[in-house]
Amino acid sequence: MGKKLFDALRIAQIVIPALGVLYEAIAAAWGFPGAEPVMVTCGALAAFIGTILKIDSTAFFAGKEIVEAEDVDSKAD
């Protein structure tokens, strides 16, 4: 997965649930239909995107050494 797609999905993972909550609030205030199905759909999409991102980041970091912040500080001394 490319960096642009990864970044776009990270943003979507935040925005989609926020849009679901916004619609649920507006639907309750104005009597719009379908608030619950919209929230369930947004939650499912966010969970799916999160899973894809986790799989991709795990594959990306496989075999790479993860350097802790403490290690970086001690190497600088």
Task: State the main characteristics.
single chain, 77 residues, mainly alpha, 3 helices, 82% helix, elongated
Mean of residue pLDDT values: 84
Bin the helical content.
over 70%
- Which stretches of 5+ consecutive residues score pLDDT under 50? none
Count of beta strands: 0
DSSP strand (E) fraction? under 5%
- Counting helices, strands and paired strands, the structural category is mainly alpha
The global form is: elongated
Subunit organisation of the chains: single chain
Distance between the termini: 37 Å
Order of helices and strands: HHH
Q: Which value, in Å, is the CA radius of gyration?
A: 19 Å
The largest sheet, given as strand count, sense and whether it forms a barrel, is: none
Number of domains: 1
Number of helices: 3
Explain how this protein is built.
There is one protein chain. By secondary structure, the protein is mainly alpha-helical. The chain has one domain. Helices cover 82% and strands 0% of the residues. It contains three helices and no strands. α1 runs antiparallel to α2. The longest helix is centred in the first third of the chain and has 28 residues. The model has no long low-confidence stretch (mean pLDDT 84).
